[in-house]
Amino acid sequence: MRDNIIIADCEKEELETLLKGLSKNGCHYEIKSYPANGGRTGVISELKRYMNYFTVAFKYFLKRRNYNQLICWQQFYALIYGFYCNLFKVKKVNKVVAFNFTYKEKKKFTKIYRWFMNKCLSGQYVDYIHVPSSEYADIISSQFRFPRKKIIVATFGIDDIYEHYHMIDAPEGFEKNGYMLAVGRSNRDFDFLISSWKDIQYPLVIVSDTYGGNTDQANICIKRTISGKMQYPWIVNCKALIVPIDDGRICSGDTVLLKGLSLKKIVLVTEPSTLAEMYIKNGENGLTVKKDADCLRNTIDDIVDGKYDHIEENARRSFLDSYSRYSLGASVADAIQ
Fold first, then answer.
1. Cβ(69)–Cβ(4) under 8 Å?
2. For the whole model, what pTM was predicted?
């Protein structure tokens, strides 16, 4: 009997509840872990990360007849596997699923990257892709002529981290609820956030190991060496967590948003965005704001004044009800059975 596996770019423990959800219909899976989601400190680390994607995908391409299902938590493991299959025109022998699919045009090598993605998704070697937004599913289906019925729309999910982290002390030099926080790597518009902060006195901390911008504003602090679990003291102790999205059509920021909801934080996301579409009920479990400096400043003032303190408990409740990693796995299991 051929195996069913989950190929992940994180530690196995992070996907235990996802595995339970995927297994709800009686299908057994084994997690294969190839961590590649650590800090990005420069060109060398980025090259190593992409080399990992290609080598892991090639390993399973060579052994493809041993597996019935390849469920890829990192989308590039599935996409590059599909690329190899398409490149060598091999017989299709398994079901391949890509979690958390997103596509963003590259500023350089645009045509090559688009050709590569088309090669990955054509030939029917990738059976399903998962995205957290119906609108984004329509866009991807149109862009790549990928069958809409094979795009699984389900909100992202993370494990509950509240009990483990909610009592962590504030970072040195900062007080609990004494600053606003923005965290993220991809598709973030930190430039908008900084430019809008000129008339805001409340401190802002930006945590990103990929953001290259700077500011001379005394109340804005940019942290570039914080990643992974090092982010939790910053999230737990902020007054509100801001997710400023660059391109609202692209799915990104889900993990940071859900960490905030799990930890009872007021989460503020810009709109339009898939986050505003799929996760936030404005004024109930979080806040949405147009990408307008005046709107942002007014909302920040209201947060500081305590107008939205009630959201904290609502955020936690909405996370428990709707956004567990088990629920995500169960949704995908039902779609691919």
1. yes
2. 0.80
